[in-house]
Design a protein that fits this description.
Blueprint (H helix, E strand, L loop, with lengths): L1 E3 L2 H6 L3 H21 L3 E6 L2 E5 L9 H14 L1 H10 L7 E5 L5 E6 L4 E6 L1 H11 L5 E5 H6 L4 E9 L8 E9 L5 E2 L8 E13 L10 E8 L3 E5 L9 E7 L9 E10 L2 E6 L3 H11 L2
Parallel strand pairs: 4-7
Antiparallel strand pairs: 1-3, 1-4, 2-3, 5-6, 7-9, 8-9, 9-10, 11-12, 11-14, 12-13, 13-16, 14-15, 15-16
Helix pairs in contact: 2-3
Length: 290
């Protein structure tokens, strides 16, 4: 499952025609890669793609193909963004979740409406895995990890508790694969920059169970258009989703609402990865960083 991060907020800034144009360019570029690795596109869900490998023709190396395909799809995001920049369209980022297991594949529906598709709990788990990803990230399940014939380059292993799954799930943050397919993930420069003055923020934790959301406070000093270090005394779960309002002290206009996902705990707060307003963040950092 591949999904554009923060696309809802991006679409709010575009006309329906431009939104469709952006999506068509994204799908066209991703389709070329998927076909190269003989994947089957089961669904185009707006800004998301559901793809399976090993059907309708069985492939012994289906896990290797899926991972190599995902890496090459991520490597196509920067060339796509270069094209979008020329067309004066906003940049995009994508997260990909991969899972392996038994599913039902075949013709699904009725005599009036029939389609070739895939269903099963492993499809649902794939969607859950994808929901934990941030831009430029590929997370794969332990089942996929054990099915690979090549050697994987893994950045880290994370433990999560997906909704509807009884036991905790270990996910592997993959950066490369060798063997039949030899592909590495090419990440852009994501290094943090020091702001000339702290960026004051208020934020809400979107997945809190509170009926009335309470605003929390913090500051950002180190930042990139990809991630930042959020200094706060509040405590919350890793992989929480935040909705933040930012106030610039360096005299530069800044977008008011930004979304982010918490990915790590540090001594005085958390590392967050932005999931919306990437172009606005770039402009702000250029003007307000040292």
């Amino acid at each position: 499952m591949a999904d554009l991060r923060g696309f809802s907020s991006t679409a709010e800034t575009l006309t329906p025609g431009l939104t469709l144009q952006l999506l068509n360019l994204f799908i066209e570029k991703m389709t070329d890669v998927i076909q190269k690795y003989e994947g089957t596109i089961n669904e185009v869900l707006g800004d998301a793609l559901l793809v399976f490998f090993g059907a309708p023709f069985y492939k012994e190396d289906h896990a290797d193909r899926a991972i190599a395909c995902a890496i090459e799809m991520q490597n196509q995001i920067d060339p796509l963004n270069n094209l979008l920049r020329v067309m004066q369209l906003p940049p995009v980022r994508m997260g990909i979740g991969i899972n392996s297991g038994e599913v039902i594949v075949g013709n699904i529906g009725s005599r009036k409406r029939l389609k070739y598709g895939v269903v099963g709990r492993n499809v649902n788990l794939t969607a859950r895995i994808e929901s934990y990803t941030v831009g430029y990230q590929i997370l794969l399940s332990e089942q996929t990890f054990q099915s690979v014939t090549g050697k994987l380059q893994v950045e880290k292993v994370i433990k999560v508790n997906p909704k509807g799954v009884k036991k905790p799930v270990h996910l592997f943050d993959v950066r490369g694969i060798t063997g039949i397919f030899n592909v590495d993930l090419h990440l852009p420069d994501l290094s943090l920059k020091l702001l000339t003055q702290p960026l004051s923020i208020t934020y809400e934790v979107l997945d809190d169970s509170e009926t009335v959301k309470k605003e929390k406070y913090g500051e950002i000093i180190n930042i990139s258009s990809y991630e930042a270090e959020l200094i706060t005394s509040e405590q919350f779960r890793i992989y929480s989703n935040l909705k933040m309002k930012m106030t610039s002290k360096c005299g530069v206009h800044f977008v008011e609402t930004v979304h982010a996902k918490v990915v790590n705990k540090i001594s005085n707060g958390y590392v967050i990865v932005f999931t919306s307003h990437f172009s606005m963040l770039n402009k702000f950092i250029e003007a307000c960083s040292t």
